[in-house]
Amino acid sequence: MQSRNTLLFIALIVAVVSLFSVDMMVGAVNIPLSDVWKALTGGDCPESTVKIVRNIRLVKAFVALLAGAALSVSGLQMQTLFRNPLAGPYVLGISSGASLGVALVVLAGFGSSFGVAGAAWVGSAVVLMFIGIAARRIKDIMVILILGMMFSSGVSAVVQILQYLSRDEALKTFVIWTMGSLGEVTVMQLCILFPSVLLGLVFAVLSIKPLNMLLFGEDYAVTMGLNIRRSRGMIFMSATLLAGTVTAFCGPIGFIGLATRMMFDNSDHRVLIPATMLSGASVMIICDIISKMFTLPVNAITALLGVPVVVWIVLRNRV
Protein backbone atom coordinates (compact mmCIF):
# COMPACT_ATOMS: atom_id res chain seq x y z
CA MET A 1 0.00 0.00 0.00
CA GLN A 2 2.82 2.37 0.91
CA SER A 3 4.60 1.77 -2.40
CA ARG A 4 1.32 2.26 -4.26
CA ASN A 5 0.78 5.63 -2.57
CA THR A 6 4.35 6.65 -3.38
CA LEU A 7 3.86 5.80 -7.05
CA LEU A 8 0.57 7.70 -7.03
CA PHE A 9 2.19 10.86 -5.69
CA ILE A 10 5.11 10.61 -8.11
CA ALA A 11 2.67 10.24 -11.03
CA LEU A 12 0.58 13.20 -9.82
CA ILE A 13 3.64 15.44 -9.35
CA VAL A 14 4.89 14.56 -12.83
CA ALA A 15 1.43 15.27 -14.23
CA VAL A 16 1.24 18.70 -12.55
CA VAL A 17 4.73 19.72 -13.73
CA SER A 18 4.07 18.48 -17.28
CA LEU A 19 0.66 20.15 -17.57
CA PHE A 20 2.02 23.37 -16.06
CA SER A 21 4.68 23.42 -18.79
CA VAL A 22 2.11 22.76 -21.51
CA ASP A 23 -0.09 25.53 -20.12
CA MET A 24 2.83 27.95 -20.48
CA MET A 25 3.25 26.91 -24.12
CA VAL A 26 -0.38 26.98 -25.32
CA GLY A 27 -2.29 30.15 -26.13
CA ALA A 28 -3.15 32.56 -28.91
CA VAL A 29 0.53 32.26 -29.84
CA ASN A 30 2.08 28.84 -29.26
CA ILE A 31 5.56 29.07 -27.75
CA PRO A 32 8.09 26.21 -27.83
CA LEU A 33 9.11 24.80 -24.46
CA SER A 34 12.72 25.85 -25.07
CA ASP A 35 11.65 29.48 -25.47
CA VAL A 36 9.46 29.25 -22.37
CA TRP A 37 12.47 28.05 -20.40
CA LYS A 38 14.66 30.82 -21.80
CA ALA A 39 12.03 33.43 -20.93
CA LEU A 40 11.84 32.16 -17.35
CA THR A 41 15.60 31.86 -16.83
CA GLY A 42 16.69 35.03 -18.65
CA GLY A 43 18.01 33.29 -21.76
CA ASP A 44 18.20 34.67 -25.25
CA CYS A 45 14.67 34.99 -26.68
CA PRO A 46 12.43 37.77 -28.10
CA GLU A 47 11.24 40.43 -25.65
CA SER A 48 7.63 39.78 -26.67
CA THR A 49 8.02 36.14 -25.64
CA VAL A 50 9.39 37.18 -22.25
CA LYS A 51 6.40 39.46 -21.65
CA ILE A 52 3.88 36.82 -22.69
CA VAL A 53 5.44 34.09 -20.55
CA ARG A 54 6.30 36.07 -17.43
CA ASN A 55 3.49 38.63 -17.29
CA ILE A 56 0.56 36.57 -18.58
CA ARG A 57 0.97 32.82 -18.80
CA LEU A 58 3.06 32.24 -15.69
CA VAL A 59 0.55 34.11 -13.53
CA LYS A 60 -2.43 32.38 -15.14
CA ALA A 61 -0.91 28.90 -14.85
CA PHE A 62 -0.06 29.53 -11.20
CA VAL A 63 -3.62 30.73 -10.54
CA ALA A 64 -4.96 27.56 -12.19
CA LEU A 65 -2.73 25.45 -9.95
CA LEU A 66 -3.87 27.27 -6.80
CA ALA A 67 -7.54 27.24 -7.80
CA GLY A 68 -7.54 23.52 -8.58
CA ALA A 69 -5.79 22.61 -5.33
CA ALA A 70 -8.03 24.87 -3.24
CA LEU A 71 -11.34 23.74 -4.73
CA SER A 72 -10.45 20.04 -4.60
CA VAL A 73 -9.40 20.16 -0.93
CA SER A 74 -12.44 22.20 0.13
CA GLY A 75 -14.64 19.72 -1.73
CA LEU A 76 -12.99 16.81 0.08
CA GLN A 77 -13.64 18.49 3.43
CA MET A 78 -17.32 19.02 2.68
CA GLN A 79 -17.75 15.45 1.41
CA THR A 80 -16.25 14.05 4.61
CA LEU A 81 -18.07 16.44 6.93
CA PHE A 82 -21.50 15.78 5.38
CA ARG A 83 -20.66 12.13 4.56
CA ASN A 84 -21.87 12.63 1.00
CA PRO A 85 -19.65 12.03 -2.06
CA LEU A 86 -21.62 14.66 -4.02
CA ALA A 87 -21.15 17.49 -1.51
CA GLY A 88 -19.14 20.31 -3.07
CA PRO A 89 -17.17 23.26 -1.71
CA TYR A 90 -20.13 25.60 -2.18
CA VAL A 91 -22.76 23.71 -0.15
CA LEU A 92 -22.52 26.24 2.69
CA GLY A 93 -23.58 29.10 0.41
CA ILE A 94 -20.06 30.43 -0.09
CA SER A 95 -20.61 30.90 -3.83
CA SER A 96 -23.99 32.56 -3.27
CA GLY A 97 -22.49 34.98 -0.76
CA ALA A 98 -19.75 35.88 -3.20
CA SER A 99 -22.32 36.32 -5.98
CA LEU A 100 -24.38 38.65 -3.80
CA GLY A 101 -21.31 40.76 -3.01
CA VAL A 102 -20.47 41.06 -6.69
CA ALA A 103 -24.10 41.76 -7.60
CA LEU A 104 -24.30 44.61 -5.06
CA VAL A 105 -21.16 46.18 -6.54
CA VAL A 106 -21.74 45.54 -10.24
CA LEU A 107 -25.53 45.52 -10.57
CA ALA A 108 -26.63 47.83 -7.76
CA GLY A 109 -23.55 50.06 -7.69
CA PHE A 110 -23.01 49.93 -3.92
CA GLY A 111 -19.46 50.19 -2.63
CA SER A 112 -17.78 50.18 -6.02
CA SER A 113 -14.45 50.97 -4.33
CA PHE A 114 -14.29 47.36 -3.14
CA GLY A 115 -13.90 45.98 -6.63
CA VAL A 116 -15.35 42.70 -7.81
CA ALA A 117 -12.84 40.48 -5.98
CA GLY A 118 -13.14 42.42 -2.73
CA ALA A 119 -16.93 42.35 -2.85
CA ALA A 120 -16.97 38.60 -3.48
CA TRP A 121 -14.59 38.02 -0.60
CA VAL A 122 -16.69 40.12 1.79
CA GLY A 123 -19.81 38.26 0.68
CA SER A 124 -18.16 34.91 1.38
CA ALA A 125 -16.95 36.12 4.79
CA VAL A 126 -20.47 37.23 5.76
CA VAL A 127 -21.78 33.76 4.90
CA LEU A 128 -19.03 32.20 7.02
CA MET A 129 -20.05 34.39 9.94
CA PHE A 130 -23.68 33.24 9.76
CA ILE A 131 -22.68 29.60 9.32
CA GLY A 132 -20.27 29.89 12.27
CA ILE A 133 -23.04 31.26 14.50
CA ALA A 134 -25.37 28.46 13.40
CA ALA A 135 -22.70 25.80 13.94
CA ARG A 136 -22.21 26.91 17.56
CA ARG A 137 -25.92 26.48 18.30
CA ILE A 138 -26.84 23.47 16.15
CA LYS A 139 -25.47 19.98 16.75
CA ASP A 140 -26.90 18.20 13.71
CA ILE A 141 -24.60 18.69 10.72
CA MET A 142 -27.43 17.94 8.27
CA VAL A 143 -29.44 20.84 9.69
CA ILE A 144 -26.47 23.11 8.99
CA LEU A 145 -26.39 21.75 5.43
CA ILE A 146 -30.10 22.49 4.97
CA LEU A 147 -29.65 26.00 6.38
CA GLY A 148 -26.78 26.59 3.98
CA MET A 149 -28.91 25.46 1.04
CA MET A 150 -31.87 27.61 2.12
CA PHE A 151 -29.63 30.63 2.63
CA SER A 152 -28.11 30.01 -0.80
CA SER A 153 -31.58 29.90 -2.41
CA GLY A 154 -32.62 33.13 -0.70
CA VAL A 155 -29.45 34.94 -1.76
CA SER A 156 -29.86 33.64 -5.33
CA ALA A 157 -33.35 35.12 -5.40
CA VAL A 158 -31.98 38.52 -4.36
CA VAL A 159 -29.30 38.28 -7.06
CA GLN A 160 -31.94 37.45 -9.67
CA ILE A 161 -33.95 40.54 -8.66
CA LEU A 162 -30.83 42.68 -9.02
CA GLN A 163 -30.17 41.16 -12.43
CA TYR A 164 -33.72 41.91 -13.55
CA LEU A 165 -33.45 45.55 -12.48
CA SER A 166 -29.91 46.20 -13.71
CA ARG A 167 -28.66 47.93 -16.84
CA ASP A 168 -27.44 45.91 -19.84
CA GLU A 169 -23.75 46.75 -19.39
CA ALA A 170 -23.75 45.89 -15.69
CA LEU A 171 -25.64 42.67 -16.37
CA LYS A 172 -23.09 41.65 -19.00
CA THR A 173 -20.22 42.27 -16.55
CA PHE A 174 -21.90 40.15 -13.90
CA VAL A 175 -22.68 37.29 -16.31
CA ILE A 176 -19.06 37.24 -17.50
CA TRP A 177 -17.92 37.01 -13.85
CA THR A 178 -20.21 34.00 -13.28
CA MET A 179 -18.51 32.20 -16.19
CA GLY A 180 -15.23 32.12 -14.28
CA SER A 181 -11.84 33.32 -15.45
CA LEU A 182 -8.25 32.52 -14.49
CA GLY A 183 -6.75 35.31 -16.55
CA GLU A 184 -8.14 38.32 -14.72
CA VAL A 185 -5.93 37.91 -11.63
CA THR A 186 -3.14 40.49 -11.47
CA VAL A 187 0.22 40.08 -9.77
CA MET A 188 -0.99 42.25 -6.87
CA GLN A 189 -4.12 40.13 -6.48
CA LEU A 190 -1.99 36.99 -6.62
CA CYS A 191 -0.13 38.33 -3.59
CA ILE A 192 -3.46 38.08 -1.74
CA LEU A 193 -4.72 34.90 -3.39
CA PHE A 194 -1.59 32.84 -2.66
CA PRO A 195 -1.28 33.44 1.13
CA SER A 196 -5.05 33.07 1.59
CA VAL A 197 -5.09 29.69 -0.16
CA LEU A 198 -1.92 28.66 1.69
CA LEU A 199 -3.56 29.51 5.04
CA GLY A 200 -6.64 27.52 4.03
CA LEU A 201 -4.44 24.53 3.16
CA VAL A 202 -2.67 24.82 6.53
CA PHE A 203 -6.07 24.63 8.28
CA ALA A 204 -6.91 21.64 6.06
CA VAL A 205 -3.73 19.82 7.16
CA LEU A 206 -4.51 20.61 10.81
CA SER A 207 -7.98 19.10 10.32
CA ILE A 208 -6.68 15.74 9.03
CA LYS A 209 -7.17 13.92 12.33
CA PRO A 210 -10.71 15.31 12.92
CA LEU A 211 -11.68 14.44 9.33
CA ASN A 212 -10.46 10.86 9.77
CA MET A 213 -12.50 10.56 12.97
CA LEU A 214 -15.59 12.06 11.34
CA LEU A 215 -15.56 9.30 8.72
CA PHE A 216 -17.21 7.07 11.35
CA GLY A 217 -19.83 9.67 12.31
CA GLU A 218 -19.99 12.49 14.81
CA ASP A 219 -21.15 10.24 17.67
CA TYR A 220 -18.05 8.08 17.30
CA ALA A 221 -15.84 11.18 17.05
CA VAL A 222 -17.30 12.56 20.29
CA THR A 223 -16.65 9.29 22.12
CA MET A 224 -13.04 9.51 20.95
CA GLY A 225 -12.72 12.94 22.56
CA LEU A 226 -13.11 15.16 19.49
CA ASN A 227 -14.38 18.69 20.08
CA ILE A 228 -17.03 18.80 17.35
CA ARG A 229 -17.67 22.54 17.43
CA ARG A 230 -14.01 23.49 17.27
CA SER A 231 -13.35 20.95 14.53
CA ARG A 232 -16.33 22.16 12.49
CA GLY A 233 -15.13 25.73 12.88
CA MET A 234 -11.66 24.85 11.61
CA ILE A 235 -13.07 22.92 8.64
CA PHE A 236 -15.56 25.71 7.79
CA MET A 237 -12.79 28.31 8.03
CA SER A 238 -10.53 26.25 5.77
CA ALA A 239 -13.25 25.59 3.18
CA THR A 240 -14.27 29.25 3.10
CA LEU A 241 -10.70 30.50 2.73
CA LEU A 242 -10.11 28.02 -0.10
CA ALA A 243 -13.39 28.15 -2.03
CA GLY A 244 -14.27 31.73 -1.07
CA THR A 245 -10.92 33.18 -2.12
CA VAL A 246 -10.90 31.34 -5.44
CA THR A 247 -14.49 32.46 -6.10
CA ALA A 248 -13.58 36.04 -5.24
CA PHE A 249 -10.71 36.26 -7.69
CA CYS A 250 -11.69 33.73 -10.38
CA GLY A 251 -15.49 33.59 -10.21
CA PRO A 252 -17.61 30.55 -9.28
CA ILE A 253 -15.84 27.54 -10.80
CA GLY A 254 -17.84 24.35 -10.47
CA PHE A 255 -17.23 20.58 -10.42
CA ILE A 256 -13.50 20.65 -9.56
CA GLY A 257 -14.24 20.10 -5.89
CA LEU A 258 -16.76 17.38 -6.70
CA ALA A 259 -14.91 15.13 -9.09
CA THR A 260 -11.34 14.85 -7.81
CA ARG A 261 -12.12 13.15 -4.47
CA MET A 262 -13.68 10.09 -6.10
CA MET A 263 -10.55 9.31 -8.09
CA PHE A 264 -9.12 7.61 -4.99
CA ASP A 265 -10.29 4.60 -2.99
CA ASN A 266 -8.19 5.50 0.05
CA SER A 267 -10.10 7.01 2.98
CA ASP A 268 -7.10 8.26 5.00
CA HIS A 269 -6.96 12.05 4.77
CA ARG A 270 -3.20 11.97 5.22
CA VAL A 271 -3.20 10.56 1.69
CA LEU A 272 -6.39 12.14 0.37
CA ILE A 273 -5.57 15.79 1.06
CA PRO A 274 -2.25 15.93 -0.85
CA ALA A 275 -3.61 13.57 -3.52
CA THR A 276 -6.74 15.65 -4.18
CA MET A 277 -4.63 18.81 -4.08
CA LEU A 278 -2.39 17.52 -6.87
CA SER A 279 -5.21 15.95 -8.90
CA GLY A 280 -7.35 19.09 -8.59
CA ALA A 281 -4.45 21.22 -9.78
CA SER A 282 -3.94 18.88 -12.75
CA VAL A 283 -7.63 18.94 -13.74
CA MET A 284 -7.81 22.73 -13.42
CA ILE A 285 -4.73 23.21 -15.60
CA ILE A 286 -6.20 20.83 -18.20
CA CYS A 287 -9.39 22.93 -18.22
CA ASP A 288 -7.33 26.10 -18.63
CA ILE A 289 -5.44 24.58 -21.58
CA ILE A 290 -8.70 23.55 -23.29
CA SER A 291 -10.33 26.92 -22.62
CA LYS A 292 -7.38 28.69 -24.27
CA MET A 293 -7.37 26.34 -27.24
CA PHE A 294 -11.07 26.88 -27.99
CA THR A 295 -11.45 30.39 -26.46
CA LEU A 296 -14.19 29.31 -24.07
CA PRO A 297 -14.95 30.29 -20.44
CA VAL A 298 -13.24 27.96 -17.99
CA ASN A 299 -16.50 27.27 -16.11
CA ALA A 300 -17.99 25.75 -19.26
CA ILE A 301 -15.00 23.43 -19.61
CA THR A 302 -15.09 22.30 -15.96
CA ALA A 303 -18.80 21.53 -16.33
CA LEU A 304 -18.36 19.59 -19.59
CA LEU A 305 -15.59 17.51 -18.03
CA GLY A 306 -17.14 17.28 -14.58
CA VAL A 307 -20.70 16.22 -15.40
CA PRO A 308 -19.72 12.81 -16.87
CA VAL A 309 -17.51 12.16 -13.83
CA VAL A 310 -20.33 12.99 -11.40
CA VAL A 311 -22.76 10.79 -13.36
CA TRP A 312 -20.23 7.97 -13.20
CA ILE A 313 -19.90 8.48 -9.42
CA VAL A 314 -23.66 8.29 -8.97
CA LEU A 315 -23.96 5.13 -11.07
CA ARG A 316 -20.99 3.45 -9.42
CA ASN A 317 -22.05 4.20 -5.85
CA ARG A 318 -25.82 4.28 -6.47
CA VAL A 319 -26.04 7.41 -4.33
Brief overview:
This protein is an all-alpha fold.
Layout of strands and helices, then pairs:
Elements: H1 2-25, H2 33-41, H3 47-81, H4 94-106, H5 115-137, H6 141-165, H7 168-178, H8 187-206, H9 208-214, H10 218-223, H11 228-250, H12 256-259, H13 269-294, H14 298-317
Rg of Cα set? 20 Å
Helix content: over 70%
Q: SS-based structural class? A: mainly alpha
Number of helices: 14
Mean pLDDT score, rounded? 85
Tell me the distance between the termini: 27 Å
Strand and helix order: HHHHHHHHHHHHHH
Shape: globular
Uncertain ranges: none
Q: In what range is the share of β-strand residues?
A: under 5%
Largest sheet: none
Number of strands: 0
How would you portray this structure in words?
With 319 residues, the protein is mainly alpha-helical. 77% of the residues lie in helices and 0% in strands. Helix 3 packs across helix 13 and helix 13 crosses helix 14 (298-317). The two termini are 27 Å apart.
Keyword list:
about 325 residues, about 0% strand, mainly alpha
